[in-house]
Amino acid sequence: MSSDHPSTASSPATASASATASSRGAVPAFQVMSVLQRVAELRAQGRDVISLCAGEPSGGAPSAVNRAAAEAHADTALNYTPAAGLPQLRAAIAGHYAHWYGTQVDPEEVIVTTGASGAFLLSFLAAFDAGDRVALASPGYPAYRNILTALGLQVVELPSGEAARYQPTPELLDAAEAEHGRLAGLIVASPANPTGTMLNRAELTALHAWCTEHGTRLISDEIYHGITYPAPGEPDPRGVSARELGTDSVVISSFSKYWGMPGWRVGWLLAPPELRANIEALAGNVALCPPHAAQRAAAMAFDDAAYQFGDLQVAGFAQTRAALLERLPELGWGPVAPSDGAFYLYAQLGTALGGFPDAAAWCAALLEEEGVALTPGDDFDAVHGRQAVRLSFAAGPDAVLAAVERILVFQRRHAA
Question: Which of 27, 62, 143, 391 has a 20 to 30 Å separation from 34 between CA atoms?
Fold first, then answer.
């Protein structure tokens, strides 16, 4: 080829220089995962670390689930399942709604997902268009905000503080819509992460009615249902499902918490009729299917023994919660969210912050000096969470009370 006609192909160096990263991926890291990484590093060095940063029940899965998993892994034919999940698992999940809520669910409404996280992604993609506004409570689970942002949606955070018991209200939604414009979606979580607060039947009904009136899609995260601490005789002791109010809401749940199966990565959603085909199509494209063996095992989570196992775990959480609340005055933290359910304590550090500039620095020092891992509150609330922490008491009373002793030593050392 003549030198008068240079090639138009870019050289490798030129192509590399012009490549850029997508702005959609520029979301904050989920700090819990970063803290867990440091916990692993310290343990690898031989350090004794008490990890109270993640929502991981310590009791494992029900025995029937473990047996089914062993049998499934002995089977060499662990091929793809239908994108929406194994039929027997979808039917078992539908039966769970009749058992717990007295609500009839068609198995065709059930889409099995790769953990609740997969359900968030699929439902957000199916329900909203880029640029839509979606409201959620602050403080709240950071992955909602980060996934929505990555999908090009506008996050409208509702300042749901003490006065609103850390939950959305119709009044907060009215104010948000007046300021930002129409809300395409509302995400609620009850019990909530990180606060553990819950919506009672009247409160959830009011939010559902607001969403119906305003053409707003309600997405109800019910992953912590069953892990609640009701007073004797209190109605709806396991939590109120949005599915009890109609078929127009997306309902999301998982085997991770009540059944103690966080690493199995099996969750589900109940899809409204108009979203069902799109969600199933997206599921087949995004993940093909959830893990086959884990699905087969999860289908065994709905017998009487498995429910008894879950209730026994919850009784253990209640015992740990009571022991922690008894020691709370010694820590000097406050204000503290009510922790009606789930297994978290979310609190402002107050004077216990000492000379540290924020909770992130406080938590980092606590981990390095005393070997206790908590999660800083700015992961859940970038505005008011800088002096807050979340403590997971899922690890049990021995671990939590040992951690309290170490925290007290740390706070005395760094008292302002």
Answer: 62
Query: What percent of the chain is modeled with pLDDT above 70?
Result: 95
Q: Dihedrals φ, ψ of 272, to 5°? A: -60, 150
Element (H, E) at 201: helix 201-214
What is the CATH number assigned to the segment(s) 74-302? 3.40.640.10
Q: Give the DSSP letter string of 286-344.
A: HTSSS-HHHHHHHTTTTSHHHHHHHHHHHHHHHHHHHHHHHHHHHHT--SB----BTTE
User: What's the rounded Cα separation, in Å, for the pair 296 and 293?
Assistant: 5
Q: How far apart are CA 287 and CA 282, in angstroms?
A: 8
User: Which residues are CB-contacts of 293 (< 8 A; sequence separation ≥ 6)?
Assistant: 69, 72, 73, 78
Cross-strand bridge partners of residue 132: none
Residues 6+ apart with CB under 8 A from 126: 271, 275, 278, 279, 282
Nearest one of 338, 340, 412 to 370, comparing CA atoms: 412
Rounded alpha-carbon distances, angstroms, from residue 28 to 23, 144, 171: 12, 12, 29
Buried b (16+ CB within 10 A) or exposed e, 62-81: bebbeebbeebeeeeeeeeb
Q: Which CATH superfamily is domain 23-60+306-413 in?
A: Aspartate Aminotransferase, domain 1 (3.90.1150.10)
**Domains of the chain by residue range:** 23-60+306-413, 74-302
Q: How far is CA 90 from CA 113, 285, 335, in A?
A: 11, 19, 42
Label residue 193 by pLDDT band (50, 70, 90). very high
- Amino acid identity for residue 60 in this structure: G
- Interatomic CA distance for residues 174 and 170, integer angstroms: 6
**Least confidently predicted of 74-88, 95-109, 301-315, 394-408:** 74-88
